[in-house]
Amino acid sequence: MTESKTEVVVGALVLIVALGFLAYVAQATGFSRTTTGDLQVSASFRSAEGVSVGTDVRLAGVRIGAVTQMALDPETFRASTMLRLDRAVPIPVDSSAVVASEGLLGGTFIEIMPGGSLDVLGDGDAIIDTQGAVSLLQLLLQYVAGGSEAGQ
């Protein structure tokens, strides 16, 4: 009789831990977020190296959204992205989007640099001013080769 009580208690404990883990994963990945409070904006980058669907979009280091779609524009050969942003954070229309890195070994994210306009981005708008990723490997190779071609 005591063995069955122990098994029930241990089973319930395992079930509670598993549900807690699933809730944590849903919250961490943004799966549990409702999309009614979000807006979709587009941005086109010359180089989106390191960016993929699910990559964070940050403002002042705080996560305010994520990349929802990526595709190559065959006419301009630029990476077209769709960004889901929190509607509660008003982003000026003259803001810029920069592909940034957390460091040499860190991940890549898109940083929103706010502009000074009083008008804010709406659903379906585009961020025009963008800056692509800087390739650390190319910078390192340029340094090892002795600088830029223009200086020689």
Largest sheet: 8 strands, mixed
Counting helices, strands and paired strands, the structural category is alpha/beta
User: Share of helix among residues?
Assistant: 10-25%
Spatial sequence of strands, sheet with the most strands: 7-1-4-3-2-6-5-8
Oligomerization category of the chains in this entry: single chain
- Compute the average pLDDT: 83
Counted up, domains total 2
Please describe the topology of this protein:
Elements: H1 2-29, E1 38-45, E2 56-59, E3 62-73, E4 78-86, E5 96-101, E6 108-113, E7 126-127, E8 129-131, H2 136-144
Parallel strand pairs: 1-7, 2-6, 5-8
Antiparallel strand pairs: 1-4, 2-3, 3-4, 5-6
Describe the structure.
This protein has helices at residues 2-29, 136-144, and strands spanning 38-45, 56-59, 62-73, 78-86, 96-101, 108-113, 126-127, 129-131. The protein has 152 residues and is an alpha/beta fold. The chain has 2 domains: 1-32; 38-142, no CATH class. Strands 7-1-4-3-2-6-5-8 form an 8-stranded mixed beta sheet, with no helix packed on it. The model has no long low-confidence stretch (mean pLDDT 83).
Keywords:
152 residues; alpha/beta; eight-stranded mixed beta sheet; 2 helices; 8 strands
Short description:
The chain is of the alpha/beta class and about 150 residues long. The protein contains two helices and eight strands. Strands 7-1-4-3-2-6-5-8 form an eight-stranded mixed β-sheet, with no helix packed on it.
